[in-house]
Design goal:
Elements lengths: L1 H64 L2 H11 L8
């Protein structure tokens, strides 16, 4: 019985070592995922800011020209559709 335990002790040490390596790897992976997520969030924020600026410009155009915009939209609807060439 004691001989069996003596044989298992090195395996337990190896198991602990493998677990430590795996844990270290998981921590590195989580840090990398956090960095990627932060970069994506920054990209979305920049894109969102650009869209907000464009909406502000469109709002200014609509409010400056007033009802003339409705007439321009209607005139565009009356034009024949242009088919795309593939």
């Amino acid at each position: 019985m004691i001989e069996n335990i003596a044989i298992l002790i090195p395996f337990a040490g190896i198991g602990v070592g493998v677990f430590a390596i795996w844990t270290s790897h998981q921590q590195k992976m989580m840090k990398m995922q956090s960095k990627i997520s932060a970069e994506k969030a920054a990209q979305y924020a920049a894109s969102n800011q650009q869209l907000e600026q464009r909406v502000r410009v469109l709002e200014r155009i609509v409010t400056d020209k007033g009802f003339d915009v409705a007439g321009q939209i209607e005139s565009l609807r009356d034009e024949p559709e242009v088919k795309e060439l593939n």
